[in-house]
Amino acid sequence: MRPILLLALPCIAVAQASRADEWPQWRGEKRDGVWRETGILRKYPAGGPRVVWRQPIGPGYAGPSVAGGRVYCADRNAKAETERVVCLDAATGKQVWEHVYPAEYSHVDYEAGPRATPTVHAGRVYTLGTMGHLFSLDAASGKVLWKKDLDREYDARIPGWGSTAAPLIERGLVIVNFGGSPSACVVAFDAATGAEAWKALDDPPGYAPPIVVEAGGTRQLIQWTARNVVSLDPATGKEHWRHPFNAKSDLSVMTPVHHQGKLLVSSFYSGSLLLDLDPAKPAATQRWRSRRTDEHETDVIHCLMSTPQVDGDHLYGVDSYGQLRCVEIATGKRLWETLAPTGKERWSNAHLTPNGDATFIWNERGELIIARLSPEKYEELDRARLLEPTVGSEGLRPVTWAHPAYAERQCYARNDREIIRVDLGSPAPNN
Could you say which of 69, 202, 372, 400 would form a disulfide bridge with 379 (CB–CB 3.0 to 4.6 Å)? Predict the structure, then answer.
């Protein structure tokens, strides 16, 4: 493992033919976990990748978002019983503004801090706190434009790990999965005013964020609750279809993955489900279902916090004992597995982000691995430790569980003490 080289200097931009991307929400611009920028290194320089800046931050599981030259993140002050949304200058790391609000945690495991990545859209930042505090903030100033106490206003069933689902912006609506009642598991609000547009479903919420897909000749809002995979009309909340998938312990966590007309969900205790989406109408049929049957993990794949990567006819995902597995999508056949990126631990986690012909793997030890994943093998190109894992809640081993952001050929990552920007751009060619 290469040591990290700290240089607290402004980043020198490398000239590239393509534009620089932002990372304005959970799993990036298209909410699909793909990093599309070019000019990204495949081997770290001697001494490790260059740290552009590092700044203190409080505890939290929420990953950063990057948009408009700003970085947005969330943390918690347990002593003061507050949560905070903080905005940093992306070039320097200096704080631009912060919004602090009371947030007393009640009946929540893993109390380190907020879980949901901020969503940045059209000059606003939408954030969801652990106990259901929903805010629309001015992205430039942090001014509160509107707010909702979802726990109180909707008698929400906040699950045991808190509210985790990053808000989704869809054609003037902000859509949130939080488990309100009655019939308000998922609620859409007018993004400008906060007025309720529609509400739907009586299910317990689980933890998965919603996504929107184009299938069956229409846009479909896909929400995996703790009991069902459901398709709704994102404009009205009207239900198109549902497929039962009861997630034991309500662990519907990973973001549903849509790929070439197929929809995948996976849970630790309950195994995986692959649905075929009808190309002619909003409907779905089951292609295969796997179940975890014993402690030897004989099923296909069972993810927890890590959302699988899909590439062509194969998917790659991290099971919750740490195995990175390759699976043939059409059949559910497992082709290989390895512990090389993760190590075997209960609830072991790593986030996979494909970029061109490589995948960046952020593991819970604070290491950023560059690898190539194929149906034949796992090929590691390099790795470096960017952050030290911090002590987890309730005696958990030290971990870094927050998903990094990748923008402007940089990686923005955090633990419970600091947030950093690391340069991952390829060196400019010699003239």
Answer: 372
**Residue 285 domain-assigned (yes or no):** no
> E strands within 3-118?
5-6, 50-56, 65-67, 70-77, 82-89, 95-102
**Which one-letter amino acid corresponds to residue 269?**
Y
Per-residue pLDDT for 255 more than 80?
A: yes
What are 15-50's pLDDT values in tens digits? Answer: 334 457 999 999 999 999 999 999 999 999 999 999
CA atoms within 13 A on the CB side of 337: 21
AA identity, residue 354: P
DSSP class of residue 248 equals G
Give the pair of three-digit tokens for residue 6: 């700290």
Q: Which residue range is the domain that position 380 belongs to?
A: 30-60+306-400+402-425
Tokens standing for residue 350: 């790593």
Within 8 A by CB and 6+ apart from 79, the residues are none
Cα–Cα distance between 119 and 229 in angstroms, integer?
23
Q: Residues in the chain, how many? A: 431
pLDDT score of 292: 63
**How big is the chain by its Cα radius of gyration, in Å?**
20
Q: Is 153 helix (H, G, I), strand (E, B) or coil?
A: helix
The model's pLDDT over 325-334, given as tens digits with 9 standing for 90+, comes to 999 999 999 9
Q: Is 266 a member of any domain? A: no
Closest CA to 297 of 334, 350, 352: 334
122-161 burial string, b = 16+ CB within 10 Å, else e?
A: eebbbbbbbbbbbbbbebeebeebbebebbeebebbbbeb
Q: What is the longest distance spanned by two Cα atoms in the chain? A: 66
Residue 143 counted as domain residue: no
Residues sharing a CB contact under 8 Å with residue 295, sequence separation 6 or more, in sequence order: none
Q: In CATH, what number is assigned to the domain containing residue 311?
A: 2.40.10.480
Residue of 216, 336, 323, 237 whose CA lies nearest to 279: 216
Cα dihedral value 366, 85, 54, 395, nearest 10 = -40
Query: What is the pairing mode between strands 218-224 and 211-215?
Result: antiparallel
Domain count along the chain? 1
DSSP 8-state assignment for residue 152: H
Q: What percent of the chain is predicted at pLDDT more than 70?
A: 92
